[in-house]
Specification:
The chain has about 170 residues and is mainly beta. The protein has one helix spanning about 1-25, and strands at about 60-65, 70, 75-85, 95-100, 105-110, 120-125, 135-150, 155-170. Strands 1, 2, 3, 4, 5, 6, 7 and 8 form an eight-stranded mixed beta sheet that branches. Strand 2 (about 70) and strand 3 form a beta hairpin.
């Protein structure tokens, strides 16, 4: 049991490092980024549905990133957005995020998703030092990822949705 938990944690960490491949459509089965300013699933990049978006009866997983993040005095970075996932019966679903500023890139936490078809907020937090992030422009790459078991029983990441968005760190 401990080995499976360690492997699952390793896969989750590796998925956050590999997540940028999903944004370019480079990972197997990963969707390409939308070009209309909306995350896959019809959520706008500011995390709020637009007047034309109907969230009732929506039949897909989706993810968005809020247009801002925070950097605390102790180098704690907090990012957030919205997600919807429909089914976690094949395995747990997580929202991972990666923050890019200049030539610096780091995974910022991971949130376990509630897959009930409703819109939920995700918030990921991590302390990042050496060098620390600074207030200003940055990019967030977020991924909605499900861990499924392969034929050997090992967890394998399955990318459900992704979003890359410009943010302002405050």
């Amino acid at each position: 049991m401990r080995v499976r938990l360690l492997i699952a944690a390793g896969v989750l960490l590796a998925a956050s490092a590999v997540a940028p491949l999903a944004h370019a459509g480079g990972a197997a089965g990963a969707p390409a980024l939308p070009t209309d300013g909306h995350a896959r699933g019809g959520f706008p990049t500011d995390g709020h549905p637009t007047d034309g978006d109907s969230l009732d009866g929506f039949a897909a997983d989706g993810l968005s990133v809020h247009g801002y993040g925070t950097v605390g005095a102790d180098a704690t970075v907090t990012l957030s957005g919205m997600y919807r996932c429909l089914d976690d019966s094949a395995g747990p679903v997580f929202v991972s995020s990666n923050l890019v500023q200049g030539n610096r890139s780091a995974g910022i936490g991971g949130t376990r998703a509630v897959c009930d078809g409703h819109l939920h907020e995700w918030v990921n937090t991590s302390v990042v030092k050496d060098p620390a992030y600074r207030p200003g422009a940055a990019t967030v790459r977020a991924t909605l990822m499900q861990l499924t078991s392969d034929a050997t029983g090992l967890p394998t990441p399955r990318f459900l949705a992704s979003e890359e968005a410009a943010v302002e760190l405050r």
